Amino acid sequence: MRRTLILSLFLANYLMVNAADWPQFRGIPAMTGISDAKLPAKPRLLWTYEDPDPIESSAAIVGGVVYVGTSGGNLLALDLATGKLKWKYKAAEAIGESSPAVSGGMVYIGDLDGTLHAVNAADGKKAWTWRTQGEIKGSAVVVEGKVLIGSYDGNLYAMDAKTGKPAWTFKTQAQVHATPSIANGMALITGCDGFLRAIRISNGTEAYNIRIGSYTGSSPAVSGTNAYFGTFDNEVIGVDLAKKRVIWRYQHPDRKFPFYATATLDASRIYTGGRDKMLHAIDAKSGKAAWTFATKARIDSSPVLVDGRLWFGSNDGNFYAIDVKTGKPTWTFTAGSAISASPAVANDRLVVGAQDGHLYCFGA
C-alpha cells in the first residue's frame, strides 16, 4: 500500500505528458518513458500497417495521429483509430533510430544524411530543413521555442522551431548519438566522448560536465536531481546532478554486455534492457539488482512503464509486458521480426514498429 502511494505521488510529480499524447521519444523531455494511460491485461491487436522498409524509429502520437520514420526515408502519419495512412513525407535519406518530436503543429525528425526536417503535421508539407555534417541517429526535443538535435559531426544543435535558423551550436569531443534530456533549463547529453554534459538551453553554454569514461548510446532518464543511463562498457550508471558525481555503477555479475536502451523508472527502481538479452530492474538508491527477465536476444527497445507493467520489444521477435514488481511476464506478442524501436502510448493504445516494416497498434 505504501509503495503504491509513493508511486502515485511520483507519477503526479514527474509525469508531465497528457495521457492522450506521446509527443516525442520517451514521451517527455525527462526521458522517463512513463504514461498514466490504461492498457488491458491481454491487449488485442487493433491494426497493423505494413511498410516495405524496416522501422527502427519510435513513434510519436499527438491528436490521434501516429508519426513514425522508416529506413526507406519516409515519415509516415497514420490515423491512431484505424491505422490508415494520412500522408507520407520523403526525407533525403534513410531514417534510422531518430524518432519524431511533435510540437506547435510541426513534426521534427532527423535522417542518416544528417538533415533535420520540419514538417507540417496537418498535411506533411516541408516547412524547413537544416543540414548537419554527420548522420543523425538521436531524436529531436522541442523546448523553449528551440529544436535540439545531436549529430555525428560532434555537435548539439539548437534551431529556432519556427524558422529553422540556428540559435546556437555546442561542440563536443565526439559524436552526439543520444537524445538530449531536459532538466532545470539544461540539456543533458551523453555520447561518445565519455562525458555527461549539461548545456544551458538559453544560450548553448556548458554549465558543467561529469566524466563517465565510457561511450554511451542511451539517453539519460532524469528523476529529481538524479540521472540514469547505460554504457557500452557494460554498465548502468546513476549520477547525482546536484553533486556532479557518479553515485553507483551497476554490472551484471556474469554477463558483460552493453546497455543501449534508455531506462524507465518508478519511485524506487530503474528498468532497462541490455544486449545480454535481459531486462534489468535496479534499485535506484543502491544500484543493486532487484530482478532480471531473460529473452532470447538483445534488448535495444527502451521499455515504457504503463499501468504497473513494463512494455518493450526484443530482437527475438517478441513484444513483452512484465509485472514491474515481480519481473514476471503477464503477456507476450510474437511479431516474428526483431523489435528495436520503443513503444509509444496514447489514448489507451500502444504503438510499436518492427524491423520487417510492420507497425502494430494494441489496445482494448
Task: For the structure shown, list the relevant keywords.
single chain; 364 residues; mainly beta; Methylamine Dehydrogenase, Chain H; five-stranded mixed beta sheet; 4% helix; disordered N terminus
Structure description:
The structure is a single chain. With 364 residues, the chain is mainly beta. It has one domain: 7 Propeller (Methylamine Dehydrogenase, Chain H), CATH 2.130.10.10. Helix content is 4%, strand content 44%. The chain contains 1 helix and 33 strands. It has one helix spanning 2-14; strands spanning 34-35, 44-50, 60-62, 65-69, 74-79, 85-90, 101-103, 106-110, 115-120, 126-131, 141-143, 146-150, 155-160, 166-171, 181-183, 186-190, 195-200, 206-211, 221-223, 226-230, 236-240, 245-250, 264-265, 269-273, 278-283, 289-294, 304-306, 309-313, 318-323, 329-334, 344-346, 349-353, 358-363. The protein has a 5-stranded mixed sheet with strand order 1-27-28-29-30, with no helix packed on it. β25 (278-283) and β26 form a beta hairpin. The protein is globular and about 50 Å long. The two termini are 27 Å apart. Residues 1-16 have low confidence and may be disordered.
In short:
The chain contains 1 helix and 33 strands.
Question: Helix and strand layout, with pairings?
Answer:
Blueprint (H helix, E strand, L loop, with lengths): L1 H13 L19 E2 L8 E7 L9 E3 L2 E5 L4 E6 L5 E6 L10 E3 L2 E5 L4 E6 L5 E6 L9 E3 L2 E5 L4 E6 L5 E6 L9 E3 L2 E5 L4 E6 L5 E6 L9 E3 L2 E5 L5 E5 L4 E6 L13 E2 L3 E5 L4 E6 L5 E6 L9 E3 L2 E5 L4 E6 L5 E6 L9 E3 L2 E5 L4 E6 L1
Parallel strand pairs: 1-27
Antiparallel strand pairs: 2-33, 3-4, 4-5, 5-6, 7-8, 8-9, 9-10, 11-12, 12-13, 13-14, 15-16, 16-17, 17-18, 19-20, 20-21, 21-22, 23-24, 24-25, 25-26, 27-28, 28-29, 29-30, 31-32, 32-33
